């Protein structure tokens, strides 16, 4: 048995992960399951909170869950932990006395409540003192109306969330209005930016990427580069010892290189590259690039030789570097000795590597129709793909813990 859930990040104004919205799915080939909203929410609650360890999915963040009118009145929300859940009241709920009484009760019990896809209807005015978050759908509500509502309700301690944010301009305009939370794929899209100069520490990382992608790598050059940044040397030693505690511990670069081997040494440097650039960007992007890398690698392993799987890992890892480093991807990869296959995958989604990367992007965007077609092309079942993605997520958590121990 498998459970399926879509997890969309909710970011704050600094692009840090604030929470996740959880959306029920019953398979890979069904974006909107042919069941009622009541059944979808009930199954999500049972499968994710009773059958699973919800903390593994949320990583310490709270989650937003849609609740239809009837389930709120039936008391399902009270089964959930107040510190992990934000109760979303769906836009088609009837703002009657019964719902108001339930909202007041949930508020008094310590639950956080959100009005989903808020319509600005006056019928909801009496609910506002008892809710915490208002969600505006930018595709359904004009910015001028949103601005007017926010200005006329400054006396209430409401937090505003903009969903379906599609670009940087919308993000900045909503920030200027006082919106604090954001949903949408705008943060993972390439940004048009001026060419920036890399600071010295990032230059060392780029040079390390160049060296570890040589065949064979020159360990003397790698050691020389690590010597230029003591923090990188310490990260390497902590990383190799944290991954698998050794007795006696590894205390030098040569020992670490010999223990890791070329493939693992290359992986360490790429992990450092992914987590040391773009310090003003979202931690969610770091995690997403690592999940892409591992998921691409696992997909490639299903029917490709090991060398191509290694290239798939690098392809996934580099796919968000333009956003993380604030430079066009074409300029970034010019400084790294990549194969033509990796370049074609990153710039045009061509070849097998481009197919794996597109698969990852479809999975992130919940494009189940394309996922089903890609799954068939790989000869995999939807259960196997779900398992591979969960395995990639678990692997990234392990790697990030190892990197955290290296800081």
Features:
407 residues, 8 strands
**Approximately how much beta-strand content do the residues carry?**
5-15%
Number of helices: 18
SSE class:
alpha/beta
Low-pLDDT stretches: 26-33, 188-200
What is the average of the pLDDT values? 78
First-to-last CA distance: 39 Å
Shape: elongated
Order of secondary-structure elements:
EEHHEHEHEEHEHEHHHHHHHHHHHH
Could you give the count of β-strands?
8
Please state the CA-atom Rg, rounded to the nearest Å.
Answer: 23 Å
Oligomeric nature of the chains: single chain
Report helical residue fraction.
40-55%
Question: How are the strands of the biggest sheet laid out side by side?
Answer: 1-2-3-4-5-6-7-8
Largest sheet: 8 strands, mixed, barrel
